[in-house]
Amino acid sequence: MSEAPPSMAANPAGRSAPAPRRTSRPSSLWAFRGALSRRMQAAVGVGTSLLLLLAWEAAARAGLVNSTFLPSPVAVLNAMLLMVQKQNLLWHAGVSTLRVWTAFALAAAMAVPVGILMSSYRVVGAALEPIIDFIRYLPVPALVPLSIIWFGVGESTKLYLLWLGTFFQLVLLVADDMRRVPQEYVEIAYTLGARTPQVLRDVAFRAMLPGLVDNLRITLGWCWTYLIIAEIVAADSGIGFVIWTARRYMKTPEVMAGVVVIGIIGLVTDQLLRAAHRRAFRYL
Amino acid sequence: MTEPYLAFDGVTKRFGALDVVGQPFDLTVARNEFIVFLGPSGCGKTTLMRMVGGLDTPTGGDIRLEGVPVGGPDHRRGMVFQSYSSFPWLTVAENVLFGMRYRTDLTEQQKRARRDHYLDLVGLYEFSDAYPNKVSGGMRQRVAIARTLAAGSEVLLMDEPFGALDAQRREKLQVELRGIQRRDTKTVVFVTHDVEEAVFLADRVIVFSKRPARLVADIDVTAQLGAERPLELRDSPEFFRLRNAVLKLLREAAGDDE
Ligand SMILES: Nc1ncnc2c1ncn2[C@@H]1O[C@H](COP(=O)(O)OP(=O)(O)OP(=O)(O)O)[C@@H](O)[C@H]1O
Ligand SMILES: [Mg+2]
């Protein structure tokens, strides 16, 4: 976009009397639903987190809390470094990440077409919706015994549990994204001579894409929740396994280090996907 | 007897129990005529227009284009909607090019040439690379018009395309649209609520009753005001008189409860 479009919406009378510049007042941070620059947002986010860490560290040092229950951030960090050296923490993190992504990719590859079909053809939606809604409300942990009976305690059980936790949620989200595509877009394409597969591919799918990517990002996060359950139940590797083992010996710093690693992976992935979203959908 | 260009022949339409077009509706439209549908809200104007586009099918009777009953939608009859009229993920130029995406009879080079021609015609050439959300509402409607023209539509079906625009931009686009229609010799079916817009644009204004829609009046505007429609026409006493007459008809058509 080289040319700047004219500011047609600008009020013609506004030139002589500039609008009050709210942003320059210090109180504008607290303007109801006011704007906040990207830089400021990052600063506030990092600042708050640091503040919390400091308070936590101070509380631990002052002996306000029993260190078996709440070890200080420094202790957690030390434990983490030690675990990286002695317990292959990074490898475990890699194993968990791989499991999440494999199961997630499987779930997405199936949920996207099914969800699209459900909204494109009412009959598919009518047929599948009750079943999906039923399974969606089953808590994944309740299905652990059944999946162990079916798949044993190997890798497939974990993948199955993760898939179970994401597929059914994702299907309905995808179906919703598709339903929300304005009918006008579809009809424009038809009046330009498109056939149904072309309308689906060139217009409907393209129109739902930003919402779809957003929903994929959100469900990926849920996948991590189920991962820990799967790894606690039946695993000899992965972060969940590490956390559960440390718990057995009451090594609270190690338990927390494991939790923090998951948090960091989640944070980084989410930020990367958000950035990719912004880049891919600049037109929004 | 020659076949009329576009013909509504005994068309009726009901949605379930709802009679939208009750009495069989007959109308013939000549090639290159600018027809405006005017009527109370909910009377069935959009429905009638969508049937011309092949997006709805009549319950009874049929609609024929050059003697051939209209089936499903195709590129000869193009739609311009009031909202969501262009694709937000494509630039202005890409939107216009999209109009020819499914035309296999044109080479890529021809498509690009047509794209540029119609971008120029609607005055959007310099905004080629802008995304729709970065241009004004009026420009977005012009994108849709250019896309429809580039697609090769002979009949333009426009459902309150300027409904969301402010008065000034509306007037400007009306003058432009009328010019394009005359230069490019298109047949237009245009739906609006706005009497002034109807009289300014139309060769013929068709006034409908409230639902179930019935033809109340068929006013030959060109016979009274001529085919040229400069902006100044709006200030002339003839325009005013006609506008008031149509307004009166519309009031009667809408009934007392409106
Ligand atoms: N697909 C549909 N199913 C059921 N009823 C419909 C459908 N489409 C339109 N209707 C009904 O048909 C009637 C006529 O609708 P239509 O949109 O044609 O009116 P209109 O004259 O264009 O109104 P407006 O001026 O408000 O746009 C309305 O009562 C509307 O609710
Ligand atoms: Mg309408």
TrEMBL record, chain B:
InterPro entries: AAA+_ATPase, ABC_transporter-like_ATP-bd, ABC_transporter-like_CS, ABC_transporter_ATP-bind, P-loop_NTPase
Residue ranges the record marks as coiled coil: none
A Pfam family recorded for this sequence: ABC_tran
Ranges where the ABC transporter domain occurs: 6-235
Keyword annotations of the record: ATP-binding, Nucleotide-binding, Transport
GO molecular function: ATP binding
Stored CDD domains: ABC_NrtD_SsuB_transporters (cd03293)
Family: Belongs to the ABC transporter superfamily.
Record's protein name: ABC transporter ATP-binding protein
UniProt source species: Azospirillum endophyticum
